[in-house]
Amino acid sequence: MSNSERPNQIFRNLNAKVASIPMILTALVVFVGGTAWTVLYSFTNSKLLPRLNFVGVDQYYRLWATPRWLVSIENLLIYGVISLVFSLVIGFVLAALLDQKIRFEDTFRTIFLYPFALSFIVTGLVWQWLLNPDFGIQRVVRDLGWESFSFDPLYNSSIVIYGISIAALWQGTGLIMCLMLAGLRGIDEDIWKAARVDGIPMWKTYLFIVIPMMRPVFITTLVIIAAGIVKVYDLVVAQTSGGPGIASEVPAKYVYDYMFFAQNLGQGFAASTMMLLSVVIVIVPWAYLEFGGKKRG
What we know:
By secondary structure, the chain is mostly helical.
C-alpha cells in the first residue's frame, strides 16, 4: 500500500479517540482548570467569596508563620514515614507468609483485608473506642491486674499522631498485603527451585532476587500509600478532630477549616497549593527517573 493510500495518523482508531473526548474535557476543565483556579486565587485576599484582589505572596507568608500549619506539616511527615515503612514491611511479611501455601489461606486473607472495606470514619470511631482509657485497651488490661498499665495515645499531645497511625495501618495494611501477594504469585516457580538447589537462604532469595523482580508492584504500592498520606483527613476528624488542641492537625483539615469555617478562602487556597507543590516535588523526579531515563538510554 502506498503512502497516499494509508490512513492519516489522526484518523486511526477514530472511534476510541472520539469516545475519550468527554474524559479529556473532564480532566482539562475539572482537574487542570480547578488546579489553576486554586493557584490563582491563592494570591488574593479572598474571604467568604473568591475575588481577584491580589496581595502577592502574603497568604503564603501568613501560612508559614502559623503554628497550626507547621504542626500539621510535622504530623504529616511523621504519619507519612510510619505509613510508608510499616505498611510495606507488614504487608510484605504477611504476603510472604500467605505465599507458603498455608491452610485456610482464603480465611486469613479475608480477615486481613476486611478492615479495608471499612471507611476511614468507621475505622477512626472503632479505634477511638479501643484507645479510650476509660473503656478501651487500657481499661481491659488494668482489669486483668496490671493497674499501672497506661495506653492512651489519643489523649497525649506528644504521641497522638502515633495513635492515629495505628488505626491507619490496621485499615490499609490488608490491601498492601494483597498487592504484594499478587506480585509474589507472579514469580516463576523455577526461580524458587533454582535458589533452593543453589542453597541460597530464603531471606536472601526474597531480598536479592524476589524484591527486585517485584519493582512494578512496589511502585504501584508506593503511589497508593502516598496518595492516602497526602489526603488524610477523615481518620483524624473521626478520632481526635485535630486535638488535643492542635496536636493532631493535618494539612487537609487545615485547608477545610480555613475554607469552610474560618471563611478565609485565600488562606485555604494557599495551603492547598502547598499540598499540591509537595506532590509535584515527589512525582516529577520519580517520573523523570522512571520514564525519562529509559527514553534517553
